[in-house]
Amino acid sequence: MIGKKKKSIFLFLTLMIALSIMTACSDDPTSAEGSDKADKVKNLVLTTQTVGTAVYSRAAAFNEIINPILPEDYHMEVQPSSTGGAATILLLEENKAQIGTSNNVPAKKLFEGTYDEKRPPVENVASILGGTDFTYMTIMFTDSFVKKTGIKTFEDIIDQKYPVKVVTKQAGSFGITGAEDLLDTMDVKFDDIKSWGGDVFHIDPSQMVDMLKEGKADISIDVVSLGQPAFSELTMTTTMHVIELAQETRDKLNDYGYANKVIPAKSWGGQDNDIQTVVGTESLVVRKDVPEEIVYEITKAISENKEKMVELVPVMEDFDPKTAGNLEYLGIPLHPGAEKYFKEVGYLQ
Fold it and tell me: What is the pTM of this model?
């Protein structure tokens, strides 16, 4: 009888201890849900564009440089879950990724709250560094379109209200942002092109290329790195015309944050002359809740391993750590960890 009482008391006490632990865990932000939140930071997702793009190649190079210097309880993986530009910032804002490749122009608009009148400014995203590449506003006409119409400038299409078939990247990408900005300088929207009898398709780069090859589209508008694989392949196998923007158009785009830059001759197949256009700058962004010491080490690793980065991604040749912390290359202010590094080495005051 006594043994049974002791057993009952032991079971009762065990149950009470278990209940108290469960209650404590539910209230402790470092347990259960809090632990899950911590894991989201420790398992860092670097979001970028689709496999085969120059941006993905750069993200993979970042990953190769960064993973070895992370603490043992951290790991980073590349996920091609972003369409680029604004999409990356929004994925970070929603904590669907912790690091990402972005661009200064859409980043600036999202930070200032001018990207979309219905969208408030982002609050949870900061920059690591910028100027990792320059993305060129690149407009290409098919040879059949030029021969059929005699049109050789984008401005002429708009002036004539020509029923052109246009391909751009998907919503959320920097490509579509650039196309919208370009049209906006001429007081035109995609719907206007459709009203002229034309059409607009927002698709991924491989589909853009296919439509141009097959004559289902006349022109493409994109903002891309020189040597972007899909368009490099297109211009090597199909006659395309790379189109120059007029000075007045470039001046207006400067007000949106774009800088003037030349696409050097031979950058694309069949392009024999320099082409005047505008650029955005590629950047690396991060959630603000990623610890300062982690962001510091990431910034240091990339900045001090430029030669290795160039071996992996030759377009990184133009990357300059001395200017990588400049706001004009970022669009969104630096994370404290990145700012600490750039000040420590004397690149920022």
Answer: 0.68
